[in-house]
């Protein structure tokens, strides 16, 4: 299965993705399961975008960010899931070199964009609870648009740096990737070229796009908690939970998967664990987001009810 083109050194024309640690006889069942999960991700997040566009009550900063988050989740899942499903259904596990590099680029871009959008949503919740009288002026339309533009620019710029540095590594010891997608860390381990610069930029850029946003989220919710404790009341706590509950759930899913995948040390013998955590990160979390915002969010439930009632009355 290892297809390599050899000149003076080993150069790669394509990679082989080993995929998920699933027995061959179970491939059909799991491919059907992941297909349903992927379709649920796409349709669920499209529904969120549609509801936000159609319901004027949802034309607020929080739902503006949520619509971008829903689009990002669709894109993020689409980077890896279709290729994974195709490999499982056809048993053709190869991916071209250009396709692999492109997958790294878009995977990093949408993963980083998720992080920035969650941070913007946390700041929005902080302003809504801690500075309610100044919410309209502090969360102006111009600021919301600026936050989204900056999020897109920083995310794609960061992934471009990693991708350009990866593209210069044309020599590899092997072309077999023990994963179901082209993971940057796995490719660096396979490279026989000098990866010193690649590894040096991972920490500062990772701090910029993942660690700093996470700290900002923690600070935002720390101040929200302090505000609630200053005026403790059942009504105030319930209002804060209804306002922040959905977002906190998504933050826990997103950063919990990142911590499990990248920050918890693992040996070579636990590659299966890393792949399973990556499935949670790339497939399960984007699928759960629409359910979390639909079931825990009163405004979304009302918007869905209004849309269904209008559709029934028009028939």
Notes on the protein architecture:
- The chain is mainly α.
- Helices cover 75% and strands 4% of the residues.
- It is built from ten helices and five strands, in the order βββααβαααβααααα.
- The chain has a three-stranded mixed sheet.
- A hairpin with a 3-residue loop joins β1 and β2 (10-11).
- The longest helix has 35 residues, at 196-230.
- The radius of gyration is 22 Å and the shape is globular.
Task: Looking at this protein, list some descriptive labels.
two-stranded antiparallel ribbon; single chain; 4% strand; 315 residues
Largest sheet: 3 strands, mixed
| Overall pLDDT metric | 84
Strand order of the largest sheet: 4-3-5
Weakly predicted, low-confidence segments:
1-9
Q: How much β-strand is present in the residues?
A: under 5%
Question: What topology does this entry show?
Answer:
Layout: E1 5-6, E2 10-11, E3 14-17, H1 27-54, H2 61-90, E4 94-96, H3 97-130, H4 135-138, H5 141-167, E5 176-177, H6 184-190, H7 196-230, H8 234-263, H9 271-295, H10 298-314
Helix pairs in contact: 1-2, 1-9, 1-10, 2-3, 2-9, 3-5, 3-7, 3-8, 5-7, 8-9
């Amino acid at each position: 299965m290892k297809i390599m083109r050899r000149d003076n050194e080993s150069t790669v024309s394509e990679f082989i993705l080993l995929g998920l640690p699933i027995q061959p006889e179970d491939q059909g069942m799991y491919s059907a399961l992941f297909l349903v999960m992927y379709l649920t991700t796409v349709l669920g997040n499209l529904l969120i975008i549609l509801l936000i566009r159609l319901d004027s009550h949802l034309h607020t900063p929080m739902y503006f960010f949520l619509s971008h988050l829903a689009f990002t989740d669709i894109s993020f899942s689409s980077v890896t899931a279709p290729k994974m499903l195709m490999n499982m259904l056809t048993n053709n596990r190869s991916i071209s070199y250009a396709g692999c590099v492109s997958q790294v680029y878009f995977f990093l871009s949408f993963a980083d964009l998720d992080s920035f959008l969650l941070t913007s949503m946390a700041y929005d919740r902080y302003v809504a609870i801690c500075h309610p009288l100044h919410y309209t002026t502090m969360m102006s339309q111009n600021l919301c648009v600026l936050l989204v533009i900056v999020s897109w620019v920083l995310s794609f710029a960061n992934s471009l740096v990693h991708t350009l540095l990866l593209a210069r590594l044309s020599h590899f010891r092997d072309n077999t990737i023990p994963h179901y997608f082209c993971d940057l860390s796995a490719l660096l381990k396979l490279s026989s070229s000098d990866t010193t610069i690649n590894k040096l930029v991972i920490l500062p850029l990772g701090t910029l796009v993942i660690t700093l946003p996470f700290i900002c989220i923690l600070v935002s919710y720390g101040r929200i908690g302090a505000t609630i404790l200053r005026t403790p009341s059942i009504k105030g706590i319930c209002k804060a939970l209804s306002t922040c509950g959905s977002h906190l759930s998504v933050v826990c899913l997103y950063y919990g998967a990142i911590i499990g995948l990248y920050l918890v040390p693992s040996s070579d013998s636990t590659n299966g664990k890393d792949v399973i955590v990556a499935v949670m990160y790339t497939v399960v979390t984007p699928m759960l987001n629409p359910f979390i915002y639909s079931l825990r969010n009163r405004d979304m439930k009302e918007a869905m009810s209004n849309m269904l009632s209008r559709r029934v009355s028009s028939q």
